[in-house]
Give the backbone structure.
Amino acid sequence: MDISFNAISELEKKTLFFIDESLALSSTLSSIDNQSGGAVTKAIESSGYKADLGKMLSVFSASGGDVEQIILCGLGDSESGVKNELDIQKLGGKIYSFLDGERISAVSVCVEGTIGGFAPDFVAANIAYGINLRGYRFDKYFTKQKEEDKPSLKSVSIVLDSVKEAKSKYKNYQSVAEGVFIARDVISEPPNVLYPETYAEKCKELKELGVKVEVLGEKEMAKLGMGSLLSVGQGSEKESKLVVMQWNGAAKNSGQPVAFVGKGVTFDTGGISLKPGLNMHEMKYDMGGSATVVGTIKALASRKARVNAIGVIGCVENMPGGGASRPGDIVTSMSGQTIENLNTDAEGRLVLADALWYTQDRFKPKFMINLATLTGAMVIALGVHRAGIFSNNDELAERLYRVGEDIGDRVWRFPMGEEYNKQMDSKVADIQNISNMKGAGSITAAQFLERFVNDTPWCHIDIAGVCWASTPDDLTPEGARGWGVRLLDKLVAEHYEV
Ligand code: BES
Ligand code: MN
Ligand code: ZN
């Protein structure tokens, strides 16, 4: 899909106009209405169109000059209308869905005057961003696709007076969208195609943007003492990998970097504690946390963010097999702490234990945020609309909450504490990987992780419920959402860029 910004004089045959509940026509729309003998006014009258937010009305006109199909897009009134950036982006997403549903291939979208008090260039950039995010498809594996199943929309031309300003505003959003898209891509890839080695190769693409990418194999990790992470992959034919990405967009002496750490289980069978067969295929998205990290680093590098950011992802495949770890095994983590593995399906925390320890040990970051599709209990607690956050630092948790409300990747903080921490004590080792009591499965998982962060300000985001969508929403098609890329990008933009 090609998205461009052009002058208002260049209207396509099909053009969308915004209209609020006063039903007043913008100047361009009004002149088209006049040329067409009042076709627009008549259509509004006869259909009883009220311009509710996001409500569309198509008007066909034989004599409206160059424009043959006029699409009205409602803006509601001051109460129901758009109030912020996110609302405008969502409206863009709604526009995409409508145009795709109508099988329209080329359209112009006319932005005249302010919308919700926002200047046309800002509106145009955000509409374009919403269209772009909602228009993502993962269709590379279809060898035959019916015409009606293919995306119809090929070109969107946003027309307005301040073309230059809109273009430059859109550039940043476009960079972030690229981060979201790589996250969606790697989550969507099947687990026979995307496994630790191929995933690490994919990460190397970020080198083109100036990101330093290192890949550690099993030998290197064994040398570092990562017995916890390595135990997860030992039943798999695929070699485990740790990918370390560094984006240095700020001066060398600008203080500690920020760090993002992700669970990259490219497939989670549960291991010897095998999962039930029903819907097991969904566990291809068990690398979703790491995808957010890759996407965030890509977004930061694409828009040349003035920040030093580290991304570390632990990539493993959790398989049963003759070499697989057994319930009852005790492994030694890089931190030196021993871990009793009582359930090989609680593998994500074993991966993160070493990835987190490594990250703080090597980079001494300002903070670490880790993301993981960590617990089924998270889906029970919050469903699909919010991710849970768990933190040892109020400021970091508060910032994530605020930014999430603004950009739409919303979070909710859970409690932590000594009483939960104790539930992870093992009878025979320093810690065990499942709780010794029922309940609070997401919190006890977070307590496990906290034992591997060593006083670093830290936040764990459990994205088990939000990573994958079974139905589309305004900014995402069905499937991989790329959740968290926009959240972390904005967190950096608002609080950590120099
Ligand atoms: N990857 C799963 C968690 C998950 C479940 C993510 C559903 C997305 C959707 C994780 O590795 C897991 O299996 N967790 C176990 C932990 C338990 C054994 C303590 C779980 O939640 O059942
Ligand atoms: Mn598991
Ligand atoms: Zn898992």
